[in-house]
Amino acid sequence: MVQYKTEALVLHSRKYKEADGLLTLLTRHRGKVSAVARGIYKPGSKLRGGVQPFSLNAMLLNAGRSTLHSLNQSDCLEMFLPLRSDLDAMAAASYWAELLESFAMEEQEDTGMFQLALAGFYGLAACPEPLMIHALEIRLMNRMGYAPSFRVCAGCGKPIEPSPQYSFSADAGGLVCSHCRCEGQPVIRLGPAVISLWQGLENISLDKVNRIRPQPEVLGRLGKVSQAWILYQLGRPLKSWQVLKKMEV
Predict the structure, then answer these.
(1) In what order do the strands lie in the sheet with 188-190?
(2) What are the counts of helices (DSSP H) followed by strands (DSSP E) for the chain?
(3) Are the beta carbons of 62 and 1 closer than 8 angstroms?
(4) pLDDT tens, residue by residue, 174-207
(5) Domains of the chain, residue spans
(6) Are 201 and 193 in contact (CB under 8 A)?
(7) What's the half-sphere exposure (Cβ side, CA atoms, 13 Å) at 244?
(8) Which of 224, 214, 233, 79 is nearest to 143 (CA)?
(9) What is the pLDDT of residues 124-139, one digit of tens each?
(10) Checking phi first, is residue 145 left (phi over 0); if not, alpha (psi -120 to 50) or beta?
């Protein structure tokens, strides 16, 4: 059994056996790991404060022969309190955590992923708005090497000609020209403003995202493209989408 210390973000927590908790962690040094936190549901548990979802903690864990690690000690470094005081913020944080859990690799160190995850929680704590969520989605896709093709046709590879309207196909891998678009192929129609917004969110500092004021129609279309792209990459919908949709009503 190997004992190690690491910073860890708690992405998910659920009850495991009688008084134990099963945690999904994104760690700085070992990537995504699953860990048992024993006795956290007992009154007076010393571990409970350091295993809250959407919190950053300094943890001491044991890694054995199985993929399930065990938590020995956890000290909370950042609770991200704004994410717990508002339903919209909590929904956004839940979605970000589910995205990270879905895409992060098991027990593979990825410091860049950890830094993006941490920046995401800080960003949502300051601005839990749809535009911030989309900025994080886009950066995560780029981090994983899943960026869609916007500059050349995903079908033939030829440069996309300027147009007042484009066709986006998640199945094809991005924008498709009129020659490569098949009849009956599901596409999302979008204008240049949507592409410009996507590309702008790729590199803008997260603390400046709230300075962008896109038209509601452009923001809505960006959300459709992003959701279609994530759905194609994962092959399944995310549970948090339903919660986010209800918050928009």
Answers:
(1) 174-176, 166-169, 188-190
(2) 6, 8
(3) yes
(4) 999 988 887 777 899 999 999 999 999 998 999 9
(5) 129-249
(6) no
(7) 19
(8) 233
(9) 999 999 999 999 999 9
(10) left
